[in-house]
Write a structure and sequence with these properties.
Pfam family, one: Glyoxalase
Order of helices and strands: EHEEEEHEEEEHEEEEHEEEH
InterPro entries: Extradiol_RC_dioxygenase (IPR052537), Glyas_Bleomycin-R_OHBP_Dase (IPR029068), Glyas_Fos-R_dOase_dom (IPR004360), VOC_core (IPR037523)
CATH class: Alpha Beta
Radius of gyration: 19 Å
Helix content: 10-25%
Distance between the termini: 57 Å
Shape: globular
Number of helices: 5
Protein name: Ring-cleaving dioxygenase
Number of strands: 16
GO molecular function: dioxygenase activity
Oligomer: single chain
Keywords: Dioxygenase, Oxidoreductase
Number of domains: 1
Amino acid sequence: MIKQTDGIHHITAIVGDPQENVDFYAGILGLRMVKKTVNFDDPGTYHLYFGDESGSPGSIITFFPWPAAYKGQVGSGQVGTTTYVVPEHSMAFWERRLDKFNIDYEKTSRFGEDYMKFQDPHGLQLELVERKEGKMNRWSFGGVPSDKAVKGFGGAVLLSANPTKTMELLEHVMGLQKVGEEGDYIRFKAVSDIGNLIDVRKTVLPTGKMGVGVVHHIAWRASDSDDHKDWRLHIGNHGYGVTPFKDRQYFDAIYFREDGGVLFEVATDPPGFANDETKETMGSKLMLPPWLEKKREHMEKTLLPAVTRVLEEDKS
């Protein structure tokens, strides 16, 4: 039996100023900030999570805001573009919204779908695509009503230093199915209806450089802790060096770097983001793991502002 991931669990990127990050993803894109915490490996900086109304796997984008960090460079060994899915017949709304906030965008097409490509304030490459698949996001914020709200990830474009090896991994280890080839892209599909389409570029670009405006890693879904253990054995048996299990409070994680240079994670769907605050209050205050709670007062004084707020353009 072929082992298959349901698709993307989350994508994590490096950005600059945290308030600019919140204003863009919550204020402009209308995502819910489902968790405000800190980077457990670097507690002096935030780890901010955005997603649908409940922080469902396949909708979660997370950020390490490092205002003083150097600018990254998108290239081989990275996720090149993060794709978001919006409801059918909503693209005109999103065009008007990006125009309203003076965000430049470009219209493109790939595999018979129309995309709108743009960047966040720190250079992260994003795109929107309409699809029927995927449950509607019931979250509404600022100027984004729930019937136009981002559902979650459509997928991602991978830039590999060894596309053949990356594609072999996607198909024969992660269990995605090759479903198409067009121009410079080969498309793979996971079994879920969200976060499920991965396009691999065949052209090898110069090696990317980690920094502000680039994706740090892409995480794949494991259904529970038993499935997670199976994934660690499965990946290791295919010759990849896999980390020990890491408790990330809202999921457990393992990591490995595939042969094309992209850092992969496998994360568990449970326990989710309501395990230390209620679903209604998620994202409303700084949440810390027990081992950092004693440092709360210092952190709250030194961390820069990162507040979800309705932007002025949506108040008029």
